[in-house]
Design goal:
CATH class: Alpha Beta
Shape: elongated
Largest sheet: 5 strands, antiparallel
Distance between the termini: 31 Å
Radius of gyration: 16 Å
Number of helices: 2
Number of domains: 1
Low-confidence stretches: none
CATH architecture: 2-Layer Sandwich
Helix content: 25-40%
Order of helices and strands: EHEEEHE
CATH topology: Alpha-Beta Plaits
Strand content: 25-35%
Number of strands: 5
């Protein structure tokens, strides 16, 4: 099994035609990601600005952190591309040194 890494993926707040994405749609994506990674941390939206084929896009993006393998983040990126009908999806590794402390690990 591959080691867990901490990744961040950017999720759009609006569709390519400018319509706001409803919370219900985001929650469906959350469930799909949880099936793969077990959990996720949803950060506050940030302003994204990028160019695709000479068209400027300005949109709010939601940074989401996920502890998973490199294979898992590839799957999450594919799901994100399909679920949000995106032109591109970006994810980047935040850390490859991920630790978890469970209550059973701490002596009482």
């Amino acid at each position: 099994m591959s080691a867990l890494q901490l990744w961040e993926i950017l999720v759009p707040c609006q569709s390519n035609d400018g319509k706001l994405i409803r919370t219900r749609h985001h929650k469906e994506w959350d469930k799909l990601v949880r099936k793969i990674a077990g959990g996720l941390t949803i950060m506050k939206p940030a302003k994204g600005i990028w160019v695709h084929e000479e068209t400027l896009f300005e949109e709010r993006m939601i940074p989401v952190r996920v502890a998973c393998t490199a294979h898992d983040i590839q799957e999450i990126m594919k799901i994100t591309m399909e679920h949000y009908k995106q032109i591109k999806v970006m994810a980047y590794r935040v850390s490859d040194h991920v630790l978890f402390l469970d209550e059973t690990d701490v002596k009482k």
